[in-house]
Structures are given as structure tokens and as C-alpha cells.
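Q: Got a minute? One more chain.
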Amino acid sequence: MQPVRLPPGAKRVQDNRLWAAFDYAFSGILYATRTQRNMRIHLVAASLAIVATLYLRLDRAYVALIVLCIAIVIALELVNTAIEAVVDLMTVAHHPLAKIAKDAAAGAVLVVSMASVIVGYLAFYEGVTASGAKVSAAVAGIPRNYVFVTLVVVGVVTIFLKAFAGKHGSPLQGGAVSGHAALAFAGATIISFLAGTLVVALLAFFLAFLVSQSRVEGGIHSYGEVVFGAVIGTGISAGLFLVIRV
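A: Always. Here it is, folded:
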């Protein structure tokens, strides 16, 4: 049997559809961030929680559990936003069933949020009560957590800026700040701190510069938006590194 050959350009169309799917997903996140106060609260709380895992030197199992809780809460908040939008689309009257749908969706978010608070308390209790040699022994696990926490915080800050300061473009293309530049320079800063050698640091920042330059050359961002992203990524990475060294 002869293998099926895709027509010219079919793979590119599939790739574009995949990219569009990510773009639509980020659009949903930005919409919820822009319009839903609870979503903004969840994102801020999530950032504080993961920074706390870094500062308290929590074990990986605790960090994974907290990340899972954060993901579930944010995902349910997105579902809640979607349900509210569908209900508003289907009816303009104050129908009792519409109220039930919205209340039930909000209740689901509340239940998971309360459970996450309990999980957070149990997980952070270990770090808060730890002291002396136990904390010192956990320092060896800091770099991996530092990388993860830094990139998440940079991502959250970028989402906020795109949601409230964005003037043009889509979530993955354009906006008031370059997310690519922010993440690239965050990664370069992380590599510089962890490598501890000038050559590696220069190479990392050079690659970050190339990533940022490509966004300008492609007409996706202006120089100001790229610089803004670079400052955010570098500043957050350096700030969190100082936090774990306190």
C-alpha cells in the first residue's frame, strides 16, 4: 500500500492551526485575567505561593502538590468564566436556571480553592517549622526550583501586562510587552547566576538578544516593548535569586 502523501503546504497549515490553538487558549486566559477579579486574585496568590516554596526550600513533592492545586483552581476559574459567558449569551433575562448554573460553577471554584488552602497549609507547615541543618540540607535543591518559580512568575507578570496594557496584537503576537524577550532574558539571567562564569553569561545574554531582535525584525514588537520585556525578565530573575540567598 502506497503511503499517503500530503499536498504541498498541508504541514504548514497543520502547524498554523496548532499555533492558532495556543493563541486561542492564551486569549481565553487574558480575557479572564482582564475581566474577572477572582482570576487576578488566583494568579497573584499562585505567584506568591510558588515564591514561598522557593524561599522555604520545600521538597519537590510539596512543590508538585502546590502546583497541581494552582493549576486546578485556575482551570476551574476559566471554566467558570466560560459558563458565565455561555449563560449570558443564551439568556438576557434573570432566569432561575441561569442563576443556578453560575452559582454552581462559582461553587466548584470555591470548593477547590478551600481545598487548596488546606493543602497549602499542610505543605507550607513543613517549610515554616524547618530550621537549622534541615534547611541547609535543602539548599542543594534550590536551583531547579529557582528556575521553575522564576519562569512561572515572569509568565504571570507578562500575562497581567498583556491583559491590561496591551494595545495591539494577539496573546502570542504583539502586545505592550514582549513575552519572548521577558522569558529569554529571564533564562539568560538564571544561567548567568547558576553558571557563575562570564563566558557562559555573555553567551546566554547574546542568545536572549537574538530572540528579542527576531521579534523586532518580524514586526511583532517595537524596540520599547522588547526592552520592557527584557527588564521584566532580568529584574524578576535577579530579585528572586536575592530572595533565596537571604
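A: Residues 28-130 form a domain with the Helix Hairpins fold (CATH 1.10.287.3610).
Q: Perfect, thanks.
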